[in-house]
Structure formats: C-alpha cells, structure tokens
Amino acid sequence: MTHVYALADAHLDSPSLVTIGVFDGVHKGHQELIHRVVSSAQANGCASVVLTFHPHPDVVMGGINERYYLTTPEQRAQLLKDMGVDLVVTQTFDLDLRQMRAANFVDQLLEHLNMKWLWVGEDFALGYQREGNVDFLRQYGQDHDFSVEAVPLLQYRSGDTVVSSSRIREMLAAGEVDTVHEWLGRAYSVMGEVVKGDQRGRTIGFPTANLNVWQQQVVPAHGVYAGWAILDGERHMAVTNIGTRPTFEGDYVTVEAHLLDFDRDIYGHTVELSFEKHLRSEMKFSGIDALVAQIKSDAESARTYLSQQASG
User: At a CB cut-off of 8 Å and minimum separation 6, what does 212 contact?
Assistant: First the structure.
C-alpha cells in the first residue's frame, strides 16, 4: 500500500475505484464500504483508493479543541492497508478545500487518480455547501466517464441505531469499551511513547508505563481497564489507569499501564494499549495500603479476563 498526504502527490496511470470519507476509527460501517471497494477493484483489475482527510472537517468547521479523533492518520492508514487498500490519500482539510466547488474537486480526482468508479455512503456529499451529493455525482459521472455507487449505511443489529464515529466517541466517554469493541470489530486502542512520570508506581511495587498519547485522540472515561500492551511486536497483559490519580492529588490526566509479569526499562519505546474491559471507575483511596490492595485486585481481574480471552 502507498500512503500520500496530498491528492496532488498521487499519480495513477491505471484506472482506480475511489471512495471518499473521513473514516475516523474505521468502524464496521466504514469496513462494509471498504470491503466492497477492495473486492470490486480486484474484480475489475484496478487500484482501490481511499481518500480521507486531516484535520477532521468537524474540527476545522466547528472549532473543536478537545480530544476528538478515534485514530491517528497513521493508524487509520494502517487499518485500511490491512483491509487490502492499494492507495490511501490523506488530504489536508482547510478552509480553501471547504470552499472548493464540487466539480473542481472531482476534476482533481479524475486527473490524479484516473478514477473510473466512485463508491460513497448514501448520505455522502462533498464540495462547497455539500453541493456534490450522490445525485450530482451521478450526473457528473455520466458526463465525465465514471460511475457512482451509493452504499447504504450499516445498521447495527436489528435496531435503528447507525454505526457512527460520533456515537463511538460517546460510548468511550462513558467507558463502554465492550460495546465499542463490537462496533469497531476490534478493541479500541491508543499509542504513545513511554515517558517519565512521577514514578510513584515503582515505589509501591507496581511500575507503570506512562504514555504520551496524542493530545487530540479520544481516551476512554477515567477508570481502570484490562487490555493488551503491544511493545516491539510482543503482546503483554496490562492493567491501565486513566485519570488524575486523586489519591495523590493529581491535577492532570495520565494514561498509565502496569504490564503484568514484566520488568524492563522501556522509556522512549512506543507502546500501543488496547482497552478490552472496564474494571472500575477512578477512586480516591484513604492511603497507600488501600491503593496497593486495590491495584493487586485489579491486576488479578485483568489477568483472569485476558487469560480467558486469549484461550478463546
């Protein structure tokens, strides 16, 4: 797979099947579309292309400053690669792009991607004031030799709730990582470099890896979670605390993971943490002894859950 960070840097000679969207989180709804795109592209002997955006249009147009993203651009590209996509274009979304007329943008797709097929969600629209809806694109395609396929949104179970990135953000804010796992088809995860913290965990027998997580990526609700830590290609059981450490009167949020049966210096290493199960909410303890007892209990709960998960 090739990943470029501007449409102008893409130059395809062979025909392509293109889909466009933010695809933040690459959830099951996105996956339904991507699987169809890749399969159809392979059947037609052409390249599969995903054009996505960063920053998120919501961030640019809504002035959002808090954590909002479910994936980094690199995580998103890797997930798309794993699904068989040939080319990912992460296009900068800014006010100039927002003001571009739909026809002008489609002309760039034709020029740089040699687009012959365009697959989008049925509610898709692009260009100035969302003028480039499915009806517009189909008409433009008839005039410029490409076809448009509108894919229905994936319905979750048999209810009326549509799988969406915004709903997943809400569930993470509530600590509902089990349901998020269902909607993503995988556990939610964050990634970051291990940096030095207060090192209190080491003094009480539970050293932790303090992750410098991207400041714009969503982290689950404050609390304690069972999950896996991926380090240098190896997977380790972990119990992760997200919060301000109220027992120590902390005043900023940290993401700290205690890796079970692990004792190595990993400062400067990149670790990916998954959130498999919410064990409990953040608590303030009466003293160190009570805290240590609870951490031991959390570690054993995590070990039990993850062992059962690993055994199938």
Answer: 192, 193, 194, 195
Residue pointed to by tokens 């395809």: 12
Q: State the chain's maximal CA–CA distance in angstroms.
A: 74
Residue 100: both structure tokens together: 């571009």
CA pair distance 6, 18, nearest whole angstrom: 15
Residue ranges of domains in the chain, CATH in brackets:
2-151 (3.40.50.620), 165-310 (2.40.30.30)
Q: Are 114 and 13 in contact (CB under 8 A)?
A: yes
Residue among 276, 281, 170, 270 at smallest CA distance from 223: 281
Pairing state between β 188-195 and 270-275 = antiparallel
Residues in the chain: 312
In the three-class reduction of DSSP (H, G, I as helix; E, B as strand; rest coil), residue 196 is classed as coil
Contact by Cβ (8 Å): 253, 219: yes
In a 13 Å sphere around the CA of 231, the CA atoms on its Cβ side amount to 22
Tokens of 1: 């797979």
The tens place of each residue's pLDDT in the chain, 312 residues long, gives 899 999 999 999 999 999 999 999 999 989 988 999 999 999 999 999 999 999 999 999 898 999 999 999 999 999 999 999 999 999 999 989 999 999 999 999 999 999 999 999 888 999 999 999 999 999 999 999 999 999 887 666 546 778 899 999 999 999 999 999 999 999 999 999 999 877 666 666 788 999 999 999 999 999 999 999 999 999 999 999 999 865 555 558 899 999 999 999 999 999 999 999 999 998 888 778 888 899 999 999 999 999 999 887
Please state, in angstroms and as integers, the Cα–Cα distance from residue 182 to each residue in 25, 60, 72, 224, following that order. 13, 29, 20, 20
Query: What global pTM score does this model have?
Result: 0.91
Distance CA 294, CA 287 (A): 11
Q: 44, 53 in Cβ contact below 8 A? A: no
